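Hi everyone,

Forwarding the result from last night's run.
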Amino acid sequence: MHKNIPFLKISVIFNNLRFNANLKTIWGFSCLIEGAEKIILFDTGDDGKILLENMRHMNIDPEAVDTVFL
């Protein structure tokens, strides 16, 4: 990686398309963006219970989120 390009990691947590058998799906979208000195939760999907369960399956600590972007 070039030293002048910042590292960003984007993890889809919630989506209406099944891409991971361990995660639940329903209409909506949410992803976690890590990098640029912040951890951003981009949207929250359509069901908070499913969002938190998927975060647990992905070993994502909700307390680590700096900003929620809706």
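The beta strands are 8-15, 29-35, 38-42, 67-69.

Cheers,
N.
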